[in-house]
Specification:
With 139 residues, the protein is α+β, with helices and mostly antiparallel strands. It has helices spanning 20-26, 45-56, 60-71, 89-95, 115-124, 127-136, and strands at 5-9, 15-17, 30-34, 40-44, 75-77, 84-86, 100-105, 110-114. Strands 1-7-8-4-3-5 form a six-stranded antiparallel beta sheet. It has a two-stranded antiparallel sheet with strand order 2-6.
Length: 139
């Protein structure tokens, strides 16, 4: 399970260290695409292929925007010997990443956030919102 939060910096070439614990779970090759809330979503090969099959099985007329959003910005990522991944400019621009980032585990996925955006998100979400979701799904 992908859990925890790690703060890192993006270097001048657009590379960031993917935490070792996440690399172990994600595998040698994994995928990144635009996520929600202005973050980048990172998936293992298995999860990426499963998501791709689900999306491609949907009627094109109703899901063309979703397909464009997910697939046009997607990138295959292979960490180097130092554990760094190169985030393509399209993803860095989308998520507003240029220096400080927060890399978080969300169970089955990893999200990469601009640190300021992550901090703002955490300021805006309330315990009552979380409790409401937990009650809704009987967690």
């Amino acid at each position: 399970m992908l859990i925890g939060s790690y703060q890192h910096n993006i270097d001048s070439k657009g590379r960031v260290i993917m935490p070792a614990k996440f690399r172990e779970e994600l595998g040698e090759v994994f995928y990144a695409t635009k996520g929600t809330d202005g973050s980048i979503t990172v998936l293992s090969t298995e999860a990426w292929e499963e998501l791709g099959k689900k999306i491609c099985s949907l009627p094109s007329a109703k899901t063309k925007d979703l397909k464009r959003f997910i697939f046009s910005s997607a990138a295959e990522l292979c960490p180097d010997k130092q554990g760094r991944i190169l985030l393509p400019p399209v993803l860095r621009n989308y998520a507003g990443l240029d220096k400080d980032v927060m890399i978080i585990g969300t169970g089955s996925r990893v999200e990469i956030w601009d640190l300021d955006r992550w901090n703002k998100y955490n300021e805006d979400i309330s315990e009552s919102q979380v409790l409401e979701i937990m009650d809704l799904y009987e967690i």
